[in-house]
Amino acid sequence: MTETSKFTAKTWILILSLVLLALTLRPSMASIGPLLPLMQPELHLSFTQASLLTMLPVLAMGLGIFFAHQLAIWFGSYQVVFWASIAIAAATAQRYWAVGALDLTLSAIVAGLGIAMVQAVVPGVIKQKFGTKAPLVMGWYISAIIAGAALTASLAAFWADWAQSWRVALSGWVVLSVVALLLWFSQKNAIENLPVVQSPQKPLGFANYGRAWTLAMFFGLVTCAFTCVLAWLPAYYVEQGWSEQKSGLLLGLLLCMEVVSGFISPWLASRKADRRAVLLVLLVLMATGFSGLVIAPALGLVWASLLGLGIGGLFPLSLIVSMDHQHQPASAASLTAFVQGIGYTLAAFSPLIAGFIRDFSQSFSISWLLLAAIAVLLMAMATRFNPAFYSTKFQ
Question: Is 5 within a domain?
């Protein structure tokens, strides 16, 4: 489509395909937190060990993104996403037969690599296909990623209770992957016909620029917040006396608010090139939410809502701001690959650190306060994202 055209029926089908793909990118991780109280007694997992089930796929996502960029050049965007989606589906289905922590860990790594491939390639596809509307479609795509996590977190414990098996609740999301694969297959001609445009700057080449590292750190610290609440919020509220189902629904509420913010925040930010005002408001919500978890945990619905609104808007905006720095689709894809690769690698260790702190201190409170402090640090970083100077940052 051209930059001035409206969405056609074909482009709406492509958008639906991208949204369905996005929905498959978080169930492998989001299902762990609500089901952890059921899994720990059988598998004898400490909180530190359990954190690996969230940490390893995020780490695989970070490292795999760099390989995905080159694979997309060699084989094309369609093929990379297709086979990556098969890997996600296979890893999800394998969990039905899991008999120990090692099986779950291996499936987490395979799923993480598949997720990395999809997340590295799709932003470039969106930039190429949607032109000036790319930030809007990118917001929908990222919101759908969060929606997949929300759906999983809300239903996982109920599904396990109905099936009397946490394995069914972990593996059943393969159905979603199969549906997404079928619709993506219908887009084969549209995606394969996209020109393979190599960026003059490969992802790791951006390591020479300070602004690229700032963007990567910003995205990584936002993702630290996302992965920590995904991994530990249900466990925290089970310790507060809530049931597994109610704790899972609380995480589901947080993620639903992330979806809402993921749709609204990019729209608000798109009204002008300077995104800083929206970023700062979202960071205030994030800092307030994490502080509230410690100060008044009984008000979990309030803090979960604030955290969802804050993190949900920051997640897409951090990538949109990265894309703003490059006008060419190939260069934008390379930069976002670098930002995601470094960011996810950094964020991968946050659940492990939080789990270690929980084992050592018998409380998640320290972790929540550290994340509130990180929100304040991010405020200082966000003030530097003045679009008037973007063109000077990569010279």
Answer: no
